[in-house]
Design goal:
Elements lengths: L9 E9 L4 E8 L5 E7 L6 E3 L5 E3 L2 H11 L7 H16 L5 E3 H15 L1 H11 L5 H14 L1
Parallel strand pairs: 4-6
Antiparallel strand pairs: 1-2, 2-3, 4-5
Helix pairs in contact: 1-2, 1-4, 2-3, 3-4
Length: about 150
């Protein structure tokens, strides 16, 4: 692995399992500039295709899922580690289906379910985009559902 600052070779100083044994966290040290940084090696869900609402297919992208969750959690009290754990939990649900093709609606529902448990405001943000809220009334209805469930 190359240093992100000076592009020199780096050495691994520490490795450990992370994310429920689905990733390896490595502490690295640059032999040239002395910088220290962390890298993660993750299992990539290859071969899983996502069927979108319009019927088109695209490969599953952890990055795309993480981006949507990150936007929902923006300016919320959430650490990077918590965010990664949340995304990994959703990804595990997808992986555990043991299917090559997954509906985007399934991924959206899983994301909503996990966000509902984690942060209600983030849940509402995600739901507003996922369910395409068109008016404040839609928010009100969703908030009422949340309050009834509590």
């Amino acid at each position: 692995m190359r240093c992100p600052v000076c592009q020199a070779d780096t050495k691994v100083t520490n490795s450990r399992n992370a994310d429920h044994d689905r990733a390896i966290k490595r502490r690295r040290w640059c032999t040239s500039c002395g910088r220290r940084f962390t890298t993660y090696e993750r299992l990539e869900l290859l071969g899983i295709e996502v069927v979108k609402r319009n019927g088109s297919k695209e490969p599953f992208s952890r990055h795309k899922l993480e981006s949507g969750i990150r936007k929902a959690l923006e300016k919320r009290p959430c650490t990077e580690e918590q965010l990664q754990k949340l995304v990994s939990s959703i990804e595990n649900d997808i992986f555990n289906l043991n299917k090559d093709i997954v509906e985007s609606s399934y991924i959206g529902q899983k994301a909503l379910a996990h966000l509902k448990q984690f942060d209600k405001v983030a849940y509402l943000r995600f739901a507003s985009v996922y369910r395409n809220f068109r008016s404040p009334k839609a928010f009100e209805k969703e908030i009422q559902k949340l309050q009834r469930a509590s």
